[in-house]
Amino acid sequence: MQTNDTRVAPEALISKFEISRLLRQDQSGRRIALLGTIEGKQGILIAERAAFATESLEVLKAFHAAISDVKNLGDNDIYRWYLASSGVDGEDQQSANLKLNIIWPCTQQHIKKYSDQVLRMVTETPEIYHKYIRPYMSAKRDEGRLNWVFNIIEGRTEQEDVILRDQGHGPEDGFLMLPDLNWDRKTMSSLHLLALVERRDIWSLRDLKKKHIPWLRYLRQRLLEGTVKMYPDLDQDQLKLYVHYQPTYYHFHVHIVNVMLEAGATQATGKAFGLENLISQLETISGDEEASMAHVSLTYFLGEASELWTDIYEPLKGGVRPLQN
């Protein structure tokens, strides 16, 4: 135990810390734990980037004004993503420490999605799905919100980013895989890829049927193989595959992430459904090859600003029949 004569001032410990190695990186890269020594004794330094200052409009404008050294990573339809700097590092050099996305022009639905809102758990029965949710999905598809997906599938944009394109065993089996726009494309612990299927008859997991089981098994295996081939530092059992319900857009797609990626709202129960579990559920559903996920009840969460809540589930909760499209 140190005496008062030998105790190191707390402020001096940081400069005395000699780094040995990285122990862990989490919070999507915003927190690191470093192993090192101070005066010959091992210690751990945990560093976390401060939260964004948001106390006033002036502060937010100052943050925006400080953005520099912007590098475009890609763009597709209304979506664009970048790496940029919010200042200088310790050697007065620009440091690419910001991942930026721009959605422009955005819709009211985008604004609602990215706004703080109270969440509600809802249970979607087969009857609710067929009577209200399916028509809602159809209306959204008709609004042209899938243009960016079709741009990729049909080879018009982002082809340089495609990691895997597989035609499968037949004309409806094809799919491709590329980095998700929210991944910085370098931090393996937060790896996030996206697989888009070419077929257009599967809008969401609700359209999956028993007859799709062999295709889903093939899809799963090829996504795992393609990911570890592209990123050899990873093994297949370090990857997690899931689909969203409700998804942001109604064209079937699979998320591939590092299991170490911290589970935020998008991976939470009531939003993310594991691909392996979906296959298992389809295997146990009674009925012939046409038996599907449209025949089961699903429980998930919605924000109160969501149209699904305001137009369907809130009226149902109050005993009012929702207006049908």
TrEMBL record:
It comes from Aspergillus coremiiformis. Belongs to the HIT family. SUPFAM superfamilies: HIT-like (SSF54197), mRNA decapping enzyme DcpS N-terminal domain (SSF102860). GO terms for molecular function: hydrolase activity; RNA 7-methylguanosine cap binding. The lineage of its organism: Eukaryota, Fungi, Dikarya, Ascomycota, Pezizomycotina. GO terms for cellular component: nucleus; P-body. InterPro entries: DcpS/DCS2 (IPR008594), HIT-like_sf (IPR036265), Scavenger_mRNA_decap_enz_N (IPR011145). PANTHER family: HISTIDINE TRIAD HIT PROTEIN MEMBER, M7GPPPX DIPHOSPHATASE. This is HIT-like domain-containing protein. The active site is at H253 (nucleophile). It holds the Pfam family DcpS. One of its GO terms (biological process) is deadenylation-dependent decapping of nuclear-transcribed mRNA.
